[in-house]
């Protein structure tokens, strides 16, 4: 949002055509590729794929609609069972997206493509109806473990940016270097990697891309981190919080909004004074976030451990639905609904965490009755189930199956079993 920065690298959200128009453009044999992983991520955050020899993959990609046949139940495995909620029992197409192709730099001889289960609805609708395009970048925080025991055995006790966590000859240093090499070698821009605040915790920041490409790159980044750690005898985990005495790991998304529509001046909309730095479109976009972001908690914070990670005052996003320019305890997201309806922004910039603001300070920015994030998994699921806009946007079937899967997959009888499942899943 807003004008280009004078002190940071500037990216533009350009709408480009397909990089690959046919399987021949991939130059598989020339690149030494013997196997292709046809991959997707299910509702439980498990990466699943089928490995095709190059010869058969090329045959599949020569048909009119390159795809494999798959049951929609493949999205909702819970062990050897399925979560309830599906209304369809017919097979569907697992459509190959050639433009997601990347060489698996962490697995010699392998490449990977992502697949479609449904259409690119939201991004295409935003561009067609409002002239909006987006850029998305991610921060991936993870722990490196020697053993997935209870308590987990960490590779070191280093803290934020400490050189202790990157010693020459240490196994974790070799892992981190190889992760960056593999990410860069696959065409994903790595901005930096460094030690995060918790012991043995690291953060890899990757560059902005279009939303779909960024999501694919995030999956690739995580698979790279998992595989390189495993190669060196370690275990990487993105679990939200394993140790009660330490902070957790986040997956922070940075989203920028780019509009092709001209900005009318002067800005006469009533909410201009609340955020004069933002255009009317950006303010409408932001307002939809403030209205609905708490209801997304069932998706963005799907486990009990997630609520142990997100608290007020620890730079984890906080528990208030608000926004702020330089306030890390003010989460910001966005929505197409507000742009289409011209929604006016109702709250101003929270210059400090809402939890630390007085009643007078909250009143000054229109935050007299702030919406709070749910504090338990059960409350989050109820909030999502009651949000008609999100259910319509995401689809009733997805919401029902997703909530059912989490209920079965992450409900365990003991702390030890829960930690083990968190490490296995994340």
TrEMBL record:
Q: Name one GO molecular function term.
A: glutamine synthetase activity
The UniProt similarity line reads:
Belongs to the glutamine synthetase family.
Source organism phylogeny: Eukaryota, Fungi, Dikarya, Basidiomycota, Agaricomycotina
Residues covered by the GS catalytic domain: 115-426
Q: Enumerate the UniProt keywords alphabetically.
A: Ligase
What organism is the protein native to? Rhodofomes roseus
Protein name per UniProt: GS catalytic domain-containing protein
| Matching Pfam families | Gln-synt_C (PF00120)
Q: Keyword Ligase, does the record have it?
A: yes
